[in-house]
Design goal:
338 residues; Trna Endonuclease, Chain: A, domain 1; 3 domains; two-stranded antiparallel sheet; globular
């Protein structure tokens, strides 16, 4: 493929625009370079601000694939397989179905293009392709057909050379730098924590330790809200050590909470003193049990105290937080109760 030359400033401008309407985030050049650490692109972006730069077409595409993944737009890093050729490995041993579905796909694409050019249709509808794959090659054929179409759609959505496809458009942009600052205003896309931050953190779990501690509390409150609990989040100051109170569906909020939640966004492991304090709060508030959500994990001593004394305390460590974030990537989904 050929190359593309960028006038100073235009490479980052294009990325900013795409990230803005796809992920709903405003990301500075330094922050984007930080997110792309480990690739060749931080130096390219920095140079492109003051110099002409030239990228091969495949490098330009790969830059967008990495950037859209790191800001949380795509769930996985796209490898450029727009034709879904990975199906040959995934469905090895089903050569008849693979060959047959590939032929059906070629015929469907050819006919769809003719219908589009004639004005008979305004878009390519794969329904007939799916139906033929199922009838002729069964469930395996249908799976292959779905995977091929999904890869094609994903490639079209992420590929900067394909065109301006705005599959997920955000009408406003949220500054990524705000994740490190305290804010007590209600988010525009979420009850306690903005969906765009959830998408970002789901792909960048190492950034959880860098977010403001109040944001960490709000993120935790969002977890329980999405799981169907009624949630009361503390003031973030003089809240008697209780960050979140949560009531199971149908419970009266005038009564004792179902769960007491303590949030610890810190670098150190949770110690014995902290779990003893939470146990006291559980008893005082009459809660069924407590949850301690941390950006690290319990120390060995803390786990021993919980086990030996039989404290009704559940640990949600950094790994579990990332797991929850992944489940919350799509607005309205629930989480697995601890």
């Amino acid at each position: 493929m050929g190359g593309i030359t960028f006038v100073p400033g235009t490479l980052a401008d294009g990325l900013h625009e795409t990230i803005g309407y796809k992920a709903g985030l405003a990301v500075s050049v330094p922050d984007l370079c930080d997110l792309l650490t480990g690739t060749e692109y931080p130096d390219v972006l920095r140079d492109s601000e003051t110099e002409y730069v030239r990228l091969r077409s495949e490098e330009f595409q790969d830059l967008y694939y990495h950037a859209l993944y790191k800001v949380g737009y795509s769930k996985e890093l796209f490898n450029g397989d727009r034709l879904g050729m990975y199906v040959h490995k995934k469905y090895a041993g089903h050569e008849t179905e693979l060959t047959g579905v590939t032929k059906l796909m070629t015929e469907w694409q050819r006919q769809s293009l003719k219908d589009f050019e004639s004005g008979a249709v305004k878009s390519m509808d794969p329904t007939s392709f799916f139906e033929n794959a199922l009838v002729q090659f069964g469930e395996i054929g249908l799976r292959i057909a779905f995977d091929r179409i999904e890869a094609m759609a994903l490639g079209q959505d992420l590929d900067p050379l394909f065109g301006n496809r705005r599959r997920c458009e955000w009408l406003d942009r949220l500054d990524l730098a705000e994740l490190k600052k305290r804010c007590d205003q209600a988010p525009k896309h979420g009850a306690f924590f903005d969906q765009r931050f959830i998408n970002f953190l789901a792909n960048n779990g190492e950034k959880i330790s860098e977010m403001h501690w109040r944001r960490f509390e709000q993120m935790s409150a969002e977890f329980f809200h999405r799981a169907g609990f009624k949630v009361d989040i503390g003031t973030g100051g003089n809240d008697d050590g209780v960050d979140i109170r949560a009531w199971a569906e149908g419970e009266d909020t005038a009564e004792a909470p179902t769960i007491i939640v303590q949030c610890k966004r810190q670098k150190e492991k949770i110690d014995k003193v902290t779990v003893k304090g939470l146990a006291t709060d559980i008893d005082y508030n009459g809660a069924d049990y407590g949850v301690l959500i941390t950006s690290t994990e319990f120390s060995v001593g803390a786990r021993e105290v919980v086990e030996v004394r039989g404290y009704p305390i559940q640990e949600v460590n950094a790994g579990k937080v990332v797991e929850w974030l992944g489940l919350l990537r799509e607005a309205g989904s629930g989480i697995v109760r601890v």
